[in-house]
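User: I'll paste a sequence; please echo it back and then give the predicted structure.

Assistant: Echoing your sequence first, then the prediction.
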Amino acid sequence: MTYPADLKYTSDHEWIQIDGATARVGITDYAQKQLGDVVYLELPQVGRTLKKGEVFGTIESVKAVSELYSPVDGEITEVHSALVQNPETVNKDPHGSWMIAMKVTGGQDALLDSAAYTELTK
């Protein structure tokens, strides 16, 4: 699997697309394959402030419930409510299915690029 080069990644299998001071966050193809069929998604309220590594929600599949971790420090500016209504979209298009948008305030230094994340998931 080749991971999109325009995204950054975490060892917790989240991706982040940073555009200036804003970013969108989702889970990687690797993560959705490990989870199996996604059936439920719980996301936070807009306005919540997160620290890098802090849990911002949960994703539930037929196999397991997993926590979602913030890849950076920041404030949630938007929640993808359509994805909450149709969480199975994550299985069809994990890198196109953002979960939260945030205003980034720090913590992006340790993110992995596509090559490093590919190595991590081998």
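DSSP finds four helices and nine strands in the chain. The mean pLDDT is 96.
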